[in-house]
Amino acid sequence: MLELPRHVAIIMDGNGRWAKKHKLPRLMGHNAGMNSMKEIVRCASDMGIEQLTVYAFSTENWKRDIEEVSGIFGLLVKFVARDLDELHEKSVRVRVLGDYSAIPDDARESLEKTIKTTGNNTGMQFNIALNYGSRAEILRAVNTIMNERFFDAVSKGYDIEEITEEDISKHLYTGDENGNIPDPDLIIRTSGEERLSNFLLWQSAYSEFAFTDTLWPDFTPNEFEEIIESFGNRERRFGGRK
Ligand code: FPP
């Protein structure tokens, strides 16, 4: 039987280049990318993958021009309006990683509705990294822990304890707050770029990587399945020996 990764994370890259190739506006590239995302969510859920995480909008993406940024959030609202029922039928549970309080109101409200509607579902968890940046996530974790420790030290007279790896993991967006998300077993990046771009830096310590030249809007469930299959043949040692 095929060994399935528990958690697959995807950097969906190449929407802009896809649009350029087809002489279309950039937003049409993101629209095509949203359709690919939908297909992959469906496929991953049907395969029985437990956790799928996508990098939808990074803290650095605010540097893009306003039409593109608001266009991407508009697509998010469209995705929720169009596909929420199907996600729910498949018992997919949606969670957001990142500080999404800062995104436009309609997009935030759609997400809140989705999280609420799917909150008790028991199928695949679909994590959308939105206004997410990994360094900021780690800093936020350390600052939260430091404040808690300092408060305890002053108010309860405890010594300030050392911070452990577990403490940090627990305070990341992937941490315990709404149930712990296991570290990604496999990270896929499309469009030929081979870097992490501030995505899951802490969580990817032992992840396998798969890079493909395919631009995200051209990425199919078929290619996804092939990558998952080749993952099943890899030997993972987590720093130990065979
Ligand atoms: C990277 O392509 C893609 C993004 C920054 C946005 C990803 C958005 C979607 C897949 C659709 C919207 C879905 C949601 C849930 C918000 P790029 O623009 O960096 O491509 P390029 O490197 O070719 O220019």
Would you give an account of this structure?
The protein is of the alpha/beta class and 242 residues long. It is built from seven helices and six strands, in the order E-H-H-E-H-E-H-E-H-H-E-E-H. It has helices at residues 15-21, 26-47, 66-89, 105-118, 134-156, 165-171, 221-232, and strands at residues 7-11, 51-58, 93-97, 125-132, 186-189, 208-211. It has a six-stranded parallel β-sheet with strand order 3-4-2-1-5-6, sandwiched between helices. Helix 3 runs parallel beside helix 4 and helix 5 (134-156) packs across helix 6 (165-171). The chain is globular, with a radius of gyration of 19 Å. It starts with 6 loop residues before the first strand and ends in a 10-residue tail after the last helix. The model has no long low-confidence stretch (mean pLDDT 94). Bound molecules: farnesyl diphosphate.
Low-confidence spans: pLDDT under 50, at least 5 residues? none
Order of helices and strands: EHHEHEHEHHEEH
Shape: globular
Largest sheet: 6 strands, parallel
Distance between the termini: 21 Å
Associated small molecules: farnesyl diphosphate
How are the strands ordered across the major sheet?
3-4-2-1-5-6
**Proportion of residues in helical segments:** 40-55%
**Number of DSSP helices?**
7
Q: Tell me which oligomeric state these chains represent.
A: single chain
Q: What is the structural class?
A: alpha/beta
Tally the beta strands: 6
Radius of gyration: 19 Å
| Whole-number mean pLDDT | 94
Percentage of residues in DSSP E strands = 5-15%
